[in-house]
């Protein structure tokens, strides 16, 4: 039986496939290992590159996901596609030091340890050439992770770790599967406290390809935290609709208040607020998409969004003007209209939701 399965989530990492396999071959000498690339249907041909190598190397496998996105869920599917007793996770971008994998494997084999974590924050580890902003952001995210993470774990945000299969499978049904922080998800979902050790490693600079850091990463991180906390009482999808609706209504009221305070008539202020919030709603949706539209595709998507959202916002405008004509209260009229518009917009976002 294969002793170690290395799960490698990938998106647009074609040029890193061969170097990754070559490095694993050297680092894991003496271990019966296999590698499973989980590709989110990369347009650059990542899967073709993996399969070309797999045709000559039985240790290499490829899972291609169509219509599903995200590192955490990719890792879950990769793990469930193997039968190795120990699984390891490493990024396809070569920024994780593959030479730490034998140490992680040794820390688990024939021991009572459940998880071995490659840590940037224990003695001997490091973050490489990160700038001060990224370093501070990582430290802040690590502190926030203590809400659901185990005590004593210095790097719960690490994407380089190994775990025993039984520990992973015991937790998988309760995992959020959202975002990119699968290690934290594993610890939070486990039905029992997991025994862990940390092994130092230094984060490398990206050699090829593009960074995946984006607003989506932050968005998914907080979704996962919410899923393991508030999500036990209120489904995260409902929570996001509630938060989005409240933000939309509040933004509408503030915008109307500012414009009317400057002497703008209610009808103009109310209409301008509707227009601005439509643009902001769609722009935010695109910013947190796994594959944001660019160029002309953005405007085409915005046109489709406007078409679907139009009835709710027309009702928003009509209701606001009607109430204002009878009450002469800009805030009451704006609140009533905005509430209707926010409800319709939330439904539209759910209907048009793409890329997770």
What does this structure look like?
With 356 residues, this protein is of the alpha/beta class. The protein folds into two domains: 4-209, Spore Coat Polysaccharide Biosynthesis Protein SpsA, Chain A, CATH 3.90.550; 236-352, no CATH class. It has twelve helices and seven strands. It has a seven-stranded mixed sheet. Helix 2 links the parallel strand 2 and strand 3 (60-64). Helix 9 runs antiparallel to helix 12 (330-352) and helix 10 packs parallel to helix 12 (330-352). It is elongated.
Chain oligomer state: single chain
Radius of gyration: 24 Å
What is the CATH-assigned architecture of the largest domain?
A: Alpha-Beta Complex
Q: List low-pLDDT spans.
A: 352-356
- Broad shape: elongated
Q: Structural class, judged by helices and strands?
A: alpha/beta
* Helical coverage, percent range: 40-55%
- Tally the structural domains: 2
Arithmetic mean pLDDT: 81
What's the CATH first level of the largest domain?
Alpha Beta
CATH topology of the largest domain: Spore Coat Polysaccharide Biosynthesis Protein SpsA, Chain A
What is the compact description of this entry?
The protein is α/β, with parallel strands linked by helices.
Which features does this protein show?
356 residues, alpha/beta, Spore Coat Polysaccharide Biosynthesis Protein SpsA, Chain A, 2 domains, 12 helices, 10% strand, disordered C terminus
């Amino acid at each position: 039986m294969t002793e170690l399965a290395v799960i490698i989530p990938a998106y647009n990492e074609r040029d890193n496939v061969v170097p990754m396999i070559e490095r694993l071959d050297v680092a894991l000498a003496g271990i019966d290992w296999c590698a499973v690339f989980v590709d989110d249907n990369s347009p650059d041909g990542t899967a073709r590159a993996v399969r070309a190598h797999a045709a000559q190397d039985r240790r290499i496998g490829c899972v291609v996901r169509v219509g599903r996105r995200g590192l955490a869920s990719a890792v879950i599917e990769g793990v469930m596609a193997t039968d190795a007793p120990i699984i390891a996770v490493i990024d396809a971008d070569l920024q994780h030091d593959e030479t730490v994998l034998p140490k992680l494997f040794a820390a688990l084999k024939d021991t009572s340890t459940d998880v071995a974590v490659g840590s940037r924050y224990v003695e001997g580890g490091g973050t490489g050439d990160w700038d001060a902003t990224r370093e501070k952001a990582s430290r802040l995210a690590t502190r926030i992770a203590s809400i659901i993470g185990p005590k004593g774990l210095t790097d719960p945000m690490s994407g380089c770790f190994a775990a025993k299969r039984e520990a992973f499978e015991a937790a998988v049904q309760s995992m959020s599967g959202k975002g990119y922080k699968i290690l934290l998800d594993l610890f939070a979902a486990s039905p029992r406290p997991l025994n862990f050790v940390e092994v130092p490693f230094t984060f490398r600079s990206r050699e090829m390809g593009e960074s995946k850091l984006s607003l989506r990463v932050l968005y998914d991180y907080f979704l996962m935290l919410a899923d393991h906390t508030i999500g036990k009482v209120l489904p995260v999808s409902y929570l996001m609709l509630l938060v989005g609706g409240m933000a939309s209504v509040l933004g509408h009221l503030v915008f109307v208040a500012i414009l009317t305070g400057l002497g703008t008539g209610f009808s103009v202020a109310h209409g301008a607020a509707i227009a601005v919030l439509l643009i902001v709603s769609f722009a935010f949706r695109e910013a947190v998409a796994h594959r944001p539209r660019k160029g002309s595709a953005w405007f085409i998507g915005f046109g489709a969004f406007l078409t679907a959202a139009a009835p709710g916002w027309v009702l928003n405008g009509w209701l606001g003007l009607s109430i204002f004509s009878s009450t002469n209260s800009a805030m009451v009229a704006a609140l009533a209209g905005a509430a209707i518009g926010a409800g319709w917009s939330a439904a539209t976002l759910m209907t048009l939701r793409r890329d997770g």
